[in-house]
Structures are given as structure tokens and as C-alpha cells.
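S., here's the first fold you wanted:
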Amino acid sequence: MTATRSFVVPLLRIAGPVALARLGIIGMALVDTIVVGQLAPDELPHQALGWAPTAVFLVAAIGLLQGVQVLAARSIGEGNKKGAGVALRRGLIVGLIAGVLSAIAMWVAGERLFTVFGIEAHLAGPSTPVMNILALSIPLHLLYIAGTYFLEAIKKPGISTAVMWIANAVNLGLNLWWVPEHGAEGSAWATVGARVFLAGALLICIYLLRDGVAFGVRKSKDAKGPSYGGLLAVGAAAAVSQAVEAGAFSAMTVIAGRIGAEVVAAYQIMLNLMALVFMIALGLAAATAVLVSEAIGRQAPHDAARAGWTGVGLNAIGMLIAAVLILAFAGPIGRAYTADLTLSALIASLMWVAAMVLLPDGTQVVSASALRARSDNWFPTFSHILAYAVVMPVVGYWLAEHQGMGVAGLLFAIFWSSVLSAAVLLARWWAIANRPVKAVVSAA
């Protein structure tokens, strides 16, 4: 009888560094929020609104690159290591094009991105330059993401983690230098500077990999791997899904902005806190995608199923622990975010709602990653459209504005939408986890 393979250790070995890297990404946003909240608290609404459209474009483009991770890992599972390098090179080109187009779209739209949704001129005006500056960082961050997905696929995530945390130190230094004089705009320029370092340092590290030739990092005439069509088949669905989700969360920021400056500041801080914990789920989701993709490349669907369920289980444990911790430290967390005592007290009072969101939100992202690793690309997208584009903004608008619940109403809307998404995706995974998957599309 064949022994059952455990995926707990392999998942944690990948997920640990990946989660730390993802925490580093949100760590930059955390530092931006805290430094602005402490040194220029009146500009927190401008920072929050400046990030809202930026997040939509950035997250959508990151989704477009998910094919690098999935198909590079699958190429390795098929015994074609150089295919991972092909995926990287093509992913860098896709990321650069997507990033430049995103920045141009934001500059052209300008203040209209806020006023069309009812944001008043006194908030929209100062928020627009923040958004325009942040747009410059999008192509840089996408180059980093393409490189990171490649390193995760070849199971060397520690490199991108180290680069990310050095970039966090750069970001902190630039924030402390520029925010006192330039406020939210100074924080946005700090993000640009940190991402210049981030992209450059990571690409140099990848080029100098000791086994870079084996993985096809430096171009090889005989290398074959995922085509642009193959990458986009995975990435387009993920991009739509993540754009819808990010757009829905940005719409919730707009709802908060319609209510008032204090509400939008509190909502931004609560989102930042939940995103910090969500990076753990993203780490587990990335590790799950790599192991499921490798198993599919080996034509081992039962191993893929076990890897997926293991990721879901480990996420549940992690999210429950995180929920207990933020409840235990609700007061200190609120005070750490802002010097405004009224705002910090409001934040602390909302921690129990945020704690409820963590488990279903983490579950849906791990489940979606497992499904995409099996080439079930569009089901998670339609699930996210239903939960986050249809249900969440409607419920959030009704609870926050019409029922007068403010930030708590927005958080409850996130909770119920995440429960819906997680339930649908888990049901889908249970139904198809053991099915075989067609081979990856490759090209010279």
C-alpha cells in the first residue's frame, strides 16, 4: 500500500517566506499609514482616497501575472526547468506593459476618478496628486511581482522576502524624511523610491542566481515554456477577479468618503490591519498554488487535491490565531495607528468585527489559488464578481449609510461577502479536486 504524502511541511516551507514577503508589501502601506497618521493626520483621507484607484489598477495587473507562478511551477513538474525562465521573461514584458498602461489611464482620468462617485471637491482635489504619484510606482512593483512569482515557483522565495524587507527600510526612511514637509504626497514619493529599489535589486538577484542557467533565466535558444497565450489564460481570469475585488473595496472607500473624513480614515486603517493579516493567507495561497501546479505537472491529481485541502486547513488555523491576537491587543493597535484619540478609540471598538472577517476572507483566497492552479480559471472570477462586486457594495451602502452603522456596516458587508465567496469556492474545490488537468500550452 502506498503511503499517503503529507504536504504540511512543504507548504509551510514555501508559505513562511512568501507570507513574510507579502507582509512586507503591506508593511509599506502600514508604514505609510502610520507615519502620515502620526505626522500629518489631517491628510489620512487624502492618502486613503489616493490609494483607492491605485489599488484597483495594481491588483488587477498583479493578477495578470499569476500565470508566471502557476505555469512556471507546472513546467518544473513536467521536468522542463527552462520553461520557468521563459515564463519569467514573458511575465516581465506583460507586467511592464500593463503597468505603463495603468499609470497612463490614471493620469488621464485624474480627479474625475473621485468626483464621478460623489466625493466632494475638498477631498478629491488633494487626493488626485497622491494618486498620480503612486501611479508611477505601478510598473516598478509589477516587475518585482513577476520576479517574485518566478522565485516562488522554483522554491526560492527567501530572496524576494529579503529584498522586500530591505525595501521596507528604504520606505520608512523616505517617509520620515518627506512626510513632515509634504504630507501624503511625500509618502507617495517614498513608495516610488522604495519600489525603484525593489524592482532593481530583485532582478539583479535573479540574473545572478547560481542555477540561473538550469532554470532558463538567461535566454536560451532551445528553451520552451508557457506562451503569452498560456500566461494570459491564467492571468486574465485572475486579473478580472482581483480587479473586481479591489474595485469593490475601493467602492467601499468611496462610500466611507461620502459619509465623512473620520469614517474614511477609520475604514482605511481597518482595511490596512486586515490586509496585514491577509498576507499570511496570501502566503499559504501562493504555496498551495505552487504545490498543486507541480502535482498537476506530474499528472498526480490526488496529490494536488491533498495539497489544496492542506492549504485550506493551515489557513484556518492561522486566521483563528490572528483573530485572537487582534482582539487581545485592540487598544494598543488603535493607538499605534493614529495620534487622534477619538479615531483610535473607534478603531479599537471595531476589532471584533475585523476578527470575524479573517477566516472566510483567507479561505476564499486559498481556495481560489488552488482552483487556478488546476486551470479552473474563470470559476473563481465569477464567484468574486458575485460576492464582491454585487453583494458587498450593496450591503455596505445599505448598512453604512441607510442604517447609520458607518465603518461597522462596511466591515459587516465584507464579512458576509467573504462567507459567500468562501462557501462557493470550497464547494467547487470539493467537486473537481481529483479530476485530471490538460497539459500546459508551451511555445519556443
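And the second, which I think is the more interesting of the pair:
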Amino acid sequence: MRAGAAVRRARAWLSRLVEPCTLDVWRYVADVGPVDAVCALREGRAPTRVTALAGARVADDQSLADLRRAERCGARLVVPEDDEWPALSLHCLELAVLREPVAPLPQRDRTLQLVPPLALWVRGRPRLDHLVQRSVALVGSRASTGYGEHVATDLGYGLGERGWTTVSGGAFGIDAASHRGALAAGVPTVVVLACGVDRVYPVAHSALFARVLQDGLLVSEWPPGCAPLRHRFLVRNRLIAGLTQGTVVIEAAARSGAQATANRAADLGRQVMAVPGPVTSAMSVGCHELLRDATKRVALVATAAQVVETVGAIGSDLAAPPERPQTPRDDLSDIARRVLDACPVRTGVPPERLAAVAGCDVLDVLRVLPALELAELVEWTGSGWRVTHAATGGAAR
């Protein structure tokens, strides 16, 4: 089902009228509907508080031009009335709005508000709701290290192999590495922008965005042509957190946008994860602080399997335990280990001597020696028993 032309144009007009996260305007549109809200605003019948938030933009109608501009670059406007709208993913933002007081209060800082988008401009072929249904946000520092970029690429690739979509902001550093990892796995990825979907920001990522558009999506709350203003990146963070099942912070300084995204994810009840780094690295301070914060219940993750286990279905997305190197000693009994440890390296000794060193009975020594010999851990020298060269790993003791 697709929304009617009047509804689509109304939401296109609203997406330029006010900046995202304007709570009172969102509530007014939710109460009366987008078409009636636009008519009331343009005719001066809207509540004074809502009209004041709209300001001088009320007289500027670029909705048709925005829709045409989007069509020229292969984009579309996805609205809550469409089937493609990611209603399930964004439901957490609607619940967050319910926690806000209804009584008139001074408008809070929009960068901290958790308000659903009025509409989303989407560029790319896949359906937005399908891509974000099983998705994880990978975020981190722009000034990333080689370690961070390696981990981000590996996580993006591993998540793609497991059928999960990587969502990030398309910035330098960790964001770009995450997108490239997903693309290397041959799966789509989603870039959430702080500007119009017809603009490439940063400009150096024009080739990356072109590759993303082959199978994935560029998404923005701002109409085509809008510039990447600084505050828009902070507003955009809650959309990255809300669209996904969880947020992984790979590298983050003590104060960073990645930490802000993690905080928005925690506020929305989403799972927050962090990748630990060297304790000497300034780019991992933010990750370590998140892991130390018991109130957020941040999960430590190191692999894509651990990320999927954390946010996936209970019982069906379990990560395999890390492989441990197996040695012949692993299956030995306590007596056998003690006898093996009592055996010298160079000269053989009799069972009586082994029993004295191992602290056991001679009969116990005689009972375990054949099994140790079969495992090629000990050998008979003609005058006594000693450990084999293989059992010591080639090191004398």
C-alpha cells in the first residue's frame, strides 16, 4: 500500500518545514494528520506553539520541487502511510515520545530528543523495511586506527555472511570500513545521512556511495539539496540507533558521536555493544567507558558471531565457543598427569622413583604408564622412563 499524493506531498512539505526531532510538531501531525496539519499551518490556524516552531519556513513551499529532485536522482519519499515504512523498527521512538510530558514545556535540545521521523527520503532499490528488519549499527571514530578499521571491516563482512544488514553513517574511519566490509560480503548496507540523499558527504566517498546504491540504500530525514550542518549529525544518531536491533561501538574517543549514538540506543532500549581496544589507545577510551557503565549493560563483543548472538533470536543465533588447541594432556586423569610431570627429560627413572615424585602408589604408576606410552608422551630407555621429545614441545627442562 502506498500513501496518496496529497499525504506524500504534505509530508514532503513538513520534512522541510521543521528540523527533525521537533516534538510538538510531530505530535500535532500525529493528532490531526499530515494534510490537515499542513493546511492549518499555512492558513495560520495551527496552535501558536507549533506555528512558532515552524517560523519563516511556513511561507516556503518546495514540496513539488523536492519530490521532482528526488525522482531525478532515483530517490523516493517513504512515509508512515506506506507499507515500506519501518514501523516495527521505529516503534521504539514512538514509545519514547509517550514518556515525554504533554504539558507545555520549553523545547528540549533536539540532539537529545527521541522523536520519530515525519518522513524518510530513501535512495536505492531495496525496500527500507526489509533491509533494517535484521540490522546492526556499526559506529566509531572518524580518526580511526588500523586496528579499528580491521575490526569494523571484519564485523561488517561477518554480519553480511549471516544475513544481517550493516547500518552506519557513511563517514570516514569506522563507518566507511563497516560499509566496505558488508559490500565485500556481497550484501546490501544502509547509509544514514545528515544531508540530502542527492549529496555525497564526505565528497571523497562518492565511489563508496555509488557502490552502496547498487544493492543498498542511502537514507535521510532531510529533503534533497540540504547541507550537512553540524547539528544534523547529532540528530541523525538516534535514527541509526532506532532503525537497528543493536549498536556496536568499535572505536570512540572520550567524547564522540559514536558514544552519543550508543547513548541514544540505550535510551531506546536497544542493545549496546562495544569492542575493547588497547588500554593505551585514546580511540578506545569511549568503548572502555561504555563497558564500565553498569547502568547501560553494554555487551563486550569481538566477532560478528557474538554480535548476532547478542541481538539475534534466543536459541537460534548462538555463537560457537572459541576454539581451544587440543593437546594429548587434556584427556589424562589426575594420576596420569602427575606421573607425566614426574618423568624427567634426559635420563630414565624407575617406577618407584616416579611414584615418590608424583605422590602416588607404585601400582598406580604401572597402571598409567602403558597409556602414556601409547599416547607417545613417555618412553622406556632400557633403564627407566622419561618424557618424549614431543611431550615437551622440544624444550628441555
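Why I say that: The longest helix spans residues 146-161. The chain has three domains: 5-122, 134-194+229-311, 328-387.

Talk tomorrow,
H.
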